[in-house]
Predict the 3D structure of the following.
Amino acid sequence: MTDVLPESGDDMLHDEHELLDPLGDAEEGMVKNRAKVGSARPSSLLYTYGPGAIMDLPNFSIMPAGLDDWEPIWKRREHILPIIEPRLLDVVRLHLGPQVDALRPFPWQPKRTGMSNEGSDLGVPARVFPQWFRCTGCDYLGPLTRFSYTNTHPFRPDLAQFTHKNCPGRGGKSTKKSGSPAVPAQHLLTCANGHLDEFPYSLWVHRGMRCSKAELPDMKMRDANVGRSVGSIIACASCGQTRGMAEAQGSVGREKLPRRCRGRHPHLNAFDGECDTQPALIMMGASNLWFTSTQSIIVMPRTEAEEKEALADRLRAEFGVEQIRQFGNQIDVIRALAAARNLDLADVADGDIAAAVADLLAPADSEQEQQEKRAAWDPVDLLVPEWRYLQKPALFPQQQNTNGLMVTETQRHGDLHPMISRVVAVNQMKKVNAVLGFTRLDEMDRVNDLSSRLVKLTRNDKPTWVPATEDRGEGIFLQLDLDTVASWEKSILSPPIPMWEAHRAAHQRNLESRFSETGEKVHPDTRLPAPRYWLLHTLSHALIREMAMFSGYGAASLSERIYGWTGSPQRDAAAGLLICTTASDSEGTLGGLVALSEPERLHALLVAALRRASRCSSDPVCAMRTPSAPEDFLHGAACHCCSFASETSCEKANRFLDRRFLLDLPTATGEAVPGFFGSVDAL
């Protein structure tokens, strides 16, 4: 668990260029870490509460700061061990620029004993946000500086809170000597460019004007409808004007908000300058407030070229380009510097070191070349090496645990459905995930999208490193018969069956209605997965639901990786899926999932999963669901009762699912949809 450390005391508001250092008191001999207000798993910091997101604590909310503010934390360690994975680092550099030197883990250190103080000087810095609070005793609404902060218990960070001292109470008499607790005001403003700002309560209640009675009037927030923040009423205590927050809702309410966004990035404590986009009202806990953009790979055995690239990446991360440029022609000096950093180069030849140095000092691509590479890049490129490796079982016995991968070709059961051509048990695996940035209001579509849509992680928009995690676990890989898949896919597309045309039209409507204002205008068909992806995706969800009942892992702990694309000059066609479980804070898992790859168990599990997928408690409504105008949902015969999986399991947020691609099911129009596995009665 990684500690979360917000700014503390009276220094809650910092100058734009001042770095956040919530652990500064620890340098002065502080015995207990009182800056800590909570902890989070690396996976949640990666996918749920990363920089720019709002983390709701028991008594207030915080926002993890940008990477600039992580530097004072990292300076507490002389040596930072980076995560070396050239294939993933190349993708990060492609999107964020060649100045990115390394992938870094979160600032965390394991403890040898439960009562140890090891790692207490590390943690993720965060800012208190929102910084407007409402007193629960008297409804006073004001900025952070009008409230008192306490965080005094060394072992109870959840007790940290803000209070309104001398609260008069609603009846005019204070009942608590210590004051009344304060809670964050939940209304915020955001825009499609990723900016986020406090709601201008004073301007709102005075309808864009100043208060006629006071320059800085006191305000109150009252709830007209208990439990519904849209029913909140803002009142000025000085002039008596009131205005309900319900007026700010929807497209009509948006016209009453400021015409231009201020360009604020709270995680950076900075402003971009005036933004031309009109902001919209958003609630603090809204699901579209923050969407992370990440890329991940499964670590594979490296080729000789990749090993050289890995050496260059390690030298870059350890010494930086400038130091390598200074001593690059002195191999002995490089070795001495490496020994001082506990970097073992004893088995590396001088020629390999020289080649790594030359690679580091090679001129970077021009901006035009980088733009061309970004335009041509496809996330499928990360999956291709994994697919190709899994197609070469002759390499499996040569595996070494140094790369964290161990796979075993498993014998097929004689009665296993003939459409399943291969089964591979993934006994051990390591998955590396890196953060590229985040977006607001609209999720980053990772296929041919603009990198400019990403909200920057540093003030200068040029990060030299990004956070990353290493997950270890196990899994099962299933491969469908490629020729049969190609033939089945042709029956769907040549000519297109009506159901596929309905999905295609719904996808186009979805893109037109929900795609971000800042997104690239592309043809919808370039972002619509092929029918084989729908097939594999639906099968994956059916298996996840079934495996969760026998593997010892909850369904939310299982995740999918779909290898489903048609052939092209750059890559061969693929049709396979990997169901795995991984964890960032353990050395692996317990073998309950990979045990299901045994022939007898897998055969029974597949039959049970397909039979369960053939029916749904919402049938016949679910089985016959097909989108038609103006509907724009991206699934067919699939719902929460039969096919949907948790957000942690599905790589496409429960889109592109239809049980009719899996099995022969009835349709609303009576059309024949060829299910890949045929009739459930034939299983």
Summary: The first helix runs from residue 42 to 47. The mean pLDDT is 85.
